Amino acid sequence: MKLTYSLCGDYLIPNLALEDTKEYHFGKYGRMRCAYLKNHRPALYNSLLLTEKLLPHLAEIDAACREQMETIEKAMMKQEGVTEALKAADQMGWVRRMNSIHSRAEETVLHDLIYDG
Length: 117
What we know:
InterPro entries: TnpV. This is TnpV protein. With 117 residues, the chain is mainly α. Helix content is 68%, strand content 7%. It has 5 helices and 2 strands. A hairpin with a 2-residue loop joins strand 1 and strand 2 (11-14). Helix 1 packs across helix 2 (42-50) and helix 1 packs across helix 3 (54-80). The two termini are 34 Å apart. The model has no long low-confidence stretch (mean pLDDT 94).
């Protein structure tokens, strides 16, 4: 591999460019995975970063987390009888149950995909 350099003041700076110029979008779970890798798995983080696989990995993890959250929440809602009728009859009870369901589902997703995946 032949490198070219640009003169910047008294320094020669290598002309480096990324091969993958696709724009990736990820949210909360992608950022959490990035922070986990950076702080607890630095070798894997650096490997993914240097091979330009970090951003696709984070986007994939974020999508998988959101999909699994939705699936788990729907199953829990069905199992616990949380319906639109309950929402109409007892809004605060519905909110309380939904918050509980969301917290439990997120705990499962974080354990399975963010911290172990």
